[in-house]
Amino acid sequence: MTRITIEDVAAEAGVSVTTVSHVFSGHRPVSDSTSERVRKIARDLGYRPNAIAKSLRVQRTFTAMIVLPDITNPFYPALARGVQDVLRTGGYQTLLCNTDAQDRDERAFLDEAMSRRVDGVVFMGFHVPVTDLEPLAESGIAVVNLGYGQTRAPIDIARFDDRAAAEEAVGYLLRSAPGNVGFIDGNASSPVAEARLQGFLDAYAAAGVAVPEGHVVSVDFTREGGRDGMRRLLAAGRPPRAVFCANDLIALGAIDIAHERGLAIPGDIAIMGCDDIDAADIVTPRLTTVRNSADEIGRTCGELLLSRMTGVYSGPGREVVVPYRIVVRDSA
Known about the structure:
- It is a single chain.
- This protein has 12 helices and 12 strands.
- The strands form 3 sheets. The chain has a 6-stranded parallel sheet with strand order 2-1-3-4-5-11, sandwiched between helices.
- The mean pLDDT is 92.
- The chain folds into 3 domains: 44 residues, lambda repressor-like DNA-binding domains (434 Repressor (Amino-terminal Domain), Orthogonal Bundle), CATH 1.10.260.40; 129 residues, Response regulator (Rossmann fold, 3-Layer(aba) Sandwich), CATH 3.40.50.2300; 130 residues, Response regulator (Rossmann fold).
- By secondary structure, it is α/β, with parallel strands linked by helices.
């Protein structure tokens, strides 16, 4: 098949090659009518701009990398879609990388980002601190860290207020189960897990009561982890009357075990999750949870990254805290 060239598009559209180039590069203004006609003709002919040549001209690859801990968790694909939707408006393609929350894979993808010379990275790690992202930023790669940490490098931070969200959620549960709320936390090494644990402890402190022995367990951020955590809580000398879970997948696993044991939810035990994935509204009973909008934080990451990759912003690191809200359904 003969490759369609920029000259073919220009001839068909009745404009110069330079005009076609400006339509696709955006470097010079072109009237809306001309731009629309050129793009339609390009589509009809099957023309595709040469991305390699373009990257050599402008010293950019027009690619960004999204590094996430678990793409089987429905929260993260929705987040990645939010990032991608924003970056696509700037002509950028995305590479989605799954680390399975493993230290070696987090570091391997960062090395890959450097060797590929991607233009930007959105990174969420359980093990790699934000200071280890500094070499990327110092090399000219735009970086958004999805989480916590401080650095002098021009690295932007996007996060939820996990501590405040957990404190509010546990405070809500403590009102109906005074002094008897358990917590199934995620991987202890995760900054998110640490923040949500601190929020749990804050809620108990605010209530003026001590956390009962055996009421905090740490598991994987998975449904199976939730099953394991719920079994351990129910084996405690004084099982909890309500359970806060560090994410919705853990909560789904906790519900599985409650059903298995014949426990009524919320009659015998209330269960609350965090994130508000789609499954939260279709499980039985429907899950009360903390809504952390995956799409909103994904778009926030995309906007921060795009502004740096395009040169619109080149200042010091910024931090954006995306708001949360409690969503009350049937399980608590």
